[in-house]
Amino acid sequence: MGNDMQQYLDKAGVLIEALPYIQRFNRKIIVVKYGGSAMVDEELKRNVIKDVTLLKLVGFKPIIVHGGGKEISKWVNKSGMEAKFVNGLRVTDEATMEIAEMVLGRVGKSLVTMVEELGVKAVSISGKDGRLLECDKKLSDGEDIGFVGDVKVVNPKILYDLLEKDYLPIVCPIGLDDDFNTYNINADDAACAIARAVNAEKLAFLTDIEGVYKDPEDKSTLISELTIQEAGELIGSGNIGGGMLPKLNNCIDAIENGVSRVHILDGRIPHCLLLEIFTNKGIGTAILAEHEQRYYNEEEN
C-alpha cells in the first residue's frame, strides 16, 4: 500500500502546487500561439487542446492563435505549385493566398471540433471577422513577397464578445488591408499583436524547441526565466539561432506593451502548457517584465 499511497500523495502535491497559479490567473487572458509539430501529430494535437480546455475550465480565458504552414505547403504542392520562401517568409501570390485561407479555415474548424468534443464551446474566426486584424503589406528586406501582411491595428471587440459569452476563440492569422485585400500574417506576429491588444497576462508560444539556451549547442544551458533586459543582452551576444531571434524580439515587444509573461515551450512534450503554467519550475523559458516576481528563483533559495 505504501507505494500506492505515495502516488496519491504525489498527485495531491501537484494539485496543491497548482493552486496559487490558478488563483493568480483566474479570469485572466492567456494567448496560446499554436504551431509546429504539435499541430501535425494527432496525439500531440489532442494533448494541447486538452491543456487549453483545462485552462478554460479552471477559470483562465484562453485564446488560441494557430498557424498551419506545413499544411499549407502540402496543399500548395498538391495543387501542382511550389512553395517559395524568402528570408523564412512564404511568398504568397493570389493563388497561394486562396489555398492558405481555405487550409487555415479547415485547421481552425478541426481545432473547434476537438474543443467541442471535450465539452467546451469554441468558435474559429479569422482576422477578417470584425476587422480583428488590419494590416499593411510586409516587405522582406525591401522585397515584395506578395500578400503577406504586417499587423497595423487589432480590433479586439469580437474576442471580448466571445470570451464574455464563454466561448474559446480560435484565430487564424489572415487579415485585411485598407482596400480589403486578403493577407496572410505570420502567426507569431498575429499572436503577439493580439496579446498586446487584449492586455494578456500570458502569451505562450508552442514551438519545436525546448526553450531559450545560453548556448544553442549545449542543451544543458536551457534558461528557465529571463527578464526582457536579459533577453536583450542575450540577443546582443549573438548566441541566438536564426529562428529564435524574431521570436525573442516578439516576446520583448509583447512585454513592453503590457503582457506580463511570455513562455516559449516545446510543443512536442505532452501537456507542456500545464507543466509550464502550473508548476514552480516549469519546463520551457519564461520571459518576464522587470517588475514581475521570479517564481523559479524563489523556489531555489
Counting copies of identical and different chains, the oligomeric state is single chain
The SS-based structural class is alpha/beta
Strand order of the largest sheet: 5-8-2-1-11-15-16-14
Residue fraction in strands: 25-35%
What overall form do the CA principal axes indicate? globular
Low-confidence stretches: 296-301
Work out the helicity level. 40-55%
Overall description:
The chain is of the alpha/beta class and 301 residues long. It is built from ten helices and 16 strands. Strand 12 and strand 13 form a beta hairpin. The radius of gyration is 19 Å and the shape is globular.
What secondary-structure arrangement, pairings included, does this model have?
Elements: H1 2-25, E1 29-34, H2 42-57, E2 61-66, H3 69-78, E3 85-86, E4 89-90, H4 94-117, E5 122-126, E6 133-140, E7 143-154, H5 157-164, E8 168-172, E9 174-176, E10 182-185, H6 187-197, E11 202-207, E12 212-213, E13 222-223, E14 225-227, H7 228-236, H8 244-256, E15 261-266, H9 272-278, E16 285-288, H10 295-300
Parallel strand pairs: 1-2, 1-11, 2-8, 5-8, 7-10, 11-15, 14-16
Antiparallel strand pairs: 3-4, 6-7, 9-10, 12-13, 15-16
